[in-house]
Each structure stands twice: as structure tokens, then as C-alpha cells.
């Protein structure tokens, strides 16, 4: 009988203690937009980066594939695009004011933008000024954003800017960042398909 009373008292004490325990608040719902804003701030602070990947270019009547290497240090960039099977290479070095283009067996040529150089020499143009940001998964500053969509983790899924439609088909972890692993870019005259094999933050 005594044991039964002790058991009842024990149950009552546990119930009272449980009643005094504050209720835990449920975790706030995940907000992709809030995460996206924080992600933008972090990515824009990157001082420099390098990438190596595979780039396919599909123009109106021609197509090329090759390896892309890009080094960005502040406003300075070095881009090397190498075609397979010894078909040649294109090298761009410069900054927002002056860019030099080098191709094998030709004298270097210089202009105020990479887009102009490529258009004159090759007949097609990479959107270098925008790509610097698009490759990181960011809109380019100074250009209107016509539309954008986010994935459930607050990363860019698609972007319409500067006459280009950009789609992000995968991301990869690089240190504390989520950086694109596959980027598709389209405009009426050119299609770019880039698979990034390796990122290096500097």
C-alpha cells in the first residue's frame, strides 16, 4: 500500500515538473528569400576566385567546345579558352577599361571591352562583364533584372538579365559557399553550356 502511494506521489511530481517546463518554440520556417539576401552579401565580398570547367558554345551556324579557365582578382581577369584537338585557343586579359585578346600566330589586339574584341575577331561574344557575377550565382550590378527565381535553398535557379537567360542546374560546396556547378546561358544568337569542374577561392 505504501509503495502504491509512493508511486502515485512520484507520478504527480513528474507531472508537475513537466508542467513547469517551458514549451519549446517550433523552429521558424525556412525563408529562401532571406537566405538569398544573406548569400548575395557574402558572395559580393569575395576578392578573387579561379575556376576550371568545360565550355560549349553554340552560335547560329557554328559550334565549339573546349576547356575554360578563369581567374578573377578584383576587377582584373584572365580567361583562357582552349579548343580540343589542337584547334586553337583564345586568351583574354584585362579590366573594365582595357582588354587584350591573344590567339595563336596573331598579334595581340586591344579594345575597351572583351565583348567588342570577341565580336570583331570571332564573330561571337561572351558576356564577360556579366559572366563575372553570373558564374558566382549573382545578378550583375547595374543591369536591370527582368526576372529571377530561387531554389528551395535560397540559391539562384534562373535569371533574366542583359538580354540573357541564365539557368543554374547544380551547385557545389566550396569552403563556406555554395557555388554553381553547371550554368546554361541563352540569348537569340548564342548558347553557352558551362560545367565547372573545380573552384578555388583566393
How would you describe this protein?
Its main location: membrane. Belongs to the LolB family. The chain is an alpha+beta fold and about 200 residues long. It has one domain: outer membrane lipoprotein receptor (LolB), chain A (Clam). It has an 11-stranded antiparallel beta sheet, with helices on one face. A hairpin with a 2-residue loop joins strand 9 and strand 10. The chain is globular and about 55 Å long.
Helix content: 10-25%
Number of strands: 11
Total number of domains: 1
Instruction: Please mark out the parts with pLDDT under 50 across 5 or more consecutive residues, or reply none.
Output: 2-6, 8-23
Largest beta sheet, briefly? 11 strands, antiparallel
Proportion of residues in extended strands: 35-45%
Characterize the overall form.
globular
Count up the helices.
4
Distance between the termini: 75 Å
Q: Name the CATH superfamily assignment.
A: Lipoprotein localisation LolA/LolB/LppX
Helix and strand pattern: HHEEEEEEHHEEEEE
**Alpha-carbon Rg, integer:** 26 Å
CATH topology: outer membrane lipoprotein receptor (LolB), chain A
CATH class: Mainly Beta
Main sheet: strand order: 6-5-4-3-2-1-11-10-9-8-7
Structural class of the secondary structure composition?
A: alpha+beta
